[in-house]
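Q: Is it fine to ask for two folds in a single conversation?
A: Yes, each is treated on its own. Send the first.
Q: Here.
A: Result:
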Amino acid sequence: MVNHVKRKSTQKQSTEQTPFVLKDCALIAIATGKRAFNLKELRDDLNIVSEDSIYQHFWGSLLEPLFEEREYNNDFAAWARRGLHDDKLAERLAMVDPSEYTNLEQLREELIEIIEERWDENESLPWRLATEPFVFIESQIVVFDTDKRIQQPEELTTLLPNLSTSSIFYHFIDARRRLSDRSDDFRAWLTGFNGKYDDICQQLAALDLYFSTLTELRQQLTQIFNNCCGELS
């Protein structure tokens, strides 16, 4: 009789899932005082600037107002083209996808390696004076609680289309810096539903988060939740 009661108590599990806390954010740009007037100075500064600065120059532009299509996704590639007028270096830097690196230190090392490989091809390039300096800035994220709580993933089908792009940034991009498994807040929450939403998680993991705008990401997220939640219902 005792064993029976014990088995029964161990099988009793809570099915209540913690609600998803919907947040928003802003990136506050902060001057570092560092300026690079040639490629050598850029390389030297890259060795010592904070990770927050590297993060800003890759991801910060996603939150900036977009009045025209950008030629390059990161500030380093844009400066190589606009300041140094070196198309080869610009193209190589533009191909760097920060989401493919485990951490920002690995990303820093990749940038330095690309720069040094390029100046090995052109001995005068490290000293060529740029027509405009590269201005290093760093960013600090400010997070806001929207006071919205989501109990079930199906609710996202109506919320996502009207979600701010900065909220998409916080939950889908910045989360990868915060979470130890480099996941996003949506997947981290969905895993608490005992595998019911594994299909959504797989599709979210496959999204290209760097070479898409936040508006495009919001549309893709909306479509994934609409399709999968419709099938589950």
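Q: Second one now.
A: Result:
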Amino acid sequence: MMTRRTLLGGLLSALGAGAAVTALGGKSRSVAATDETTFEIVRSKDEWRALLTPAQFNVLREHGTERPGSSPLDHEQRVGTYLCAGCDLPVYRSDTKFDSGTGWPSFYAPIEGAIGTSEDRSFFVTRTEVHCRRCGGHLGHVFDDGPPPTGLRYCMNGVALKFVPAAA
């Protein structure tokens, strides 16, 4: 069944969301969600390229979007923690993960203090971008159509995350 969420996800993928431009305070930016000098971890493009895979660099540093259904983390069901793939900051716990049916890992709440948000006006629509508060890496977007208790859906790119299972 085709839903608005599925249609939008497919459209964003087809348009190559990696070239998205985020509008903030009247300024257009293509790489950072906010002024990179405000982050604890600041690296040059070349340093990020050396540390990340091409797919991670595209999403985390250039605001790309992975193809829906392409991340194994969408189906991850073990207990553990999801970290930013750019700096290993814990950003989501597995007990806040849910199956949104979108093809991307989704959570109803981040770990307190782990993320930042900014306005994203790319693709002729205003959305709320989610980025790592420590390195500024683009993680995904948050929408107000999630489950209780928050009613929010943090729709994340799996390639922007690392999963660490809980110790047995």
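Q: Anything structural to flag on that second result?
A: Two points. The chain is about 15% helix and 25% strand. The chain has one domain: 4-165.
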